């Protein structure tokens, strides 16, 4: 795909505003892994007015629980998990500065509303390609909630992490558009 957009974290409002559904992107920089148990804890911290374990401003959270690395690897398989489980938590995190999310599957209307209001973007990564995706991860370290095992928050350094814009800050939703296109046939 020749027309990939290169993104570097942390994301800015301008970078997010430039993205449209269907855009293929390669992400460079730092992203964080977190699934529903970690998201719940992050939102509880926000609600208490306490500091988060990482700087959320411009951050991308990858909905993944990587497997342990094999000898010589930085990380094990790191495929996306179903994003709908973060619907309850993502609007709060977007409101306090999160700019991107990576997962698989559609997200709900409250997430879309928060994305439009606060300029955020939702990317999808190819489910079932966790081993391939892990090759884009050049460093990984647990930074919070080690007791959650695979679901602990990890700080990942990524180079050319592949993703597709599925929901943009303009109200575009690739899942809805795909259904419309398929229904016309």
Task: Summarize this entry quickly.
With 185 residues, the chain is α/β, with parallel strands linked by helices. Helices cover 26% and strands 26% of the residues. It has a five-stranded mixed beta barrel with strand order 2-3-4-5-7.
Protein described:
The chain is of the alpha/beta class. The chain has helices spanning 13-17, 36-48, 90-95, 109-118, 130-133, 174-183; strands spanning 5-8, 24-33, 60-62, 100-103, 121-124, 137-144, 153-167. The chain has one domain (5-183): Alpha-Beta Barrel (fumarase), CATH 3.20.130.10. 26% of the residues lie in helices and 26% in strands. The chain has a 5-stranded mixed β-barrel. The protein is globular and about 50 Å long.
Helix content: 25-40%
Q: How many separate domains?
A: 1
The largest sheet is:
5 strands, mixed, barrel
The fraction of residues in strands falls at: 25-35%
Report the order of strands and helices.
EHEHEHEHEHEEH
**Spatial shape:** globular
CATH-defined fold name: fumarase
Runs with pLDDT <50, length 5+? none
Amino- and carboxy-terminal Cα gap: 26 Å
Number of strands: 7
By DSSP (H or I, 4+ residues per run), the number of helices equals 6
**CATH structural class:** Alpha Beta
- Biggest sheet strand order reads 2-3-4-5-7
Instruction: Return Rg in Å.
Output: 16 Å
Rounded mean pLDDT is 93
**CATH architecture title:** Alpha-Beta Barrel
Based on secondary structure, the structural category is alpha/beta
Q: What is the assigned CATH homologous superfamily?
A: Fe-S hydro-lyase, tartrate dehydratase beta-type, catalytic domain
């Amino acid at each position: 795909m020749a027309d990939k957009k290169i993104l570097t974290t942390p994301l800015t409002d301008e970078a997010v505003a430039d993205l449209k559904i269907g855009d293929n992107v390669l992400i460079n920089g730092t992203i964080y892994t977190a699934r529903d148990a970690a998201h719940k804890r992050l939102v509880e911290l926000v609600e208490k007015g306490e500091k988060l374990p990482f700087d959320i401003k411009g951050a991308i959270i990858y909905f993944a629980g990587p497997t342990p690395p094999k000898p010589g690897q930085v990380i094990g398989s790191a495929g996306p998990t179903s994003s709908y489980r973060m619907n309850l938590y993502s609007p709060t995190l977007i409101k306090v500065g999160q700019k991107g999310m990576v997962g698989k599957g559609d997200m709900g209307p409250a997430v879309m509303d928060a994305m439009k209001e606060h300029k955020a973007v939702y990317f999808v990564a190819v489910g079932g390609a966790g081993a391939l995706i892990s090759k884009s991860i050049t460093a990984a370290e647990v930074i919070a909630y080690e007791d959650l095992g695979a679901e602990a928050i990890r700080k990942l350094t990524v180079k050319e992490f592949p993703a597709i814009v599925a929901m943009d800050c303009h109200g575009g939703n690739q899942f809805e558009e795909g259904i419309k296109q398929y229904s016309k046939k």
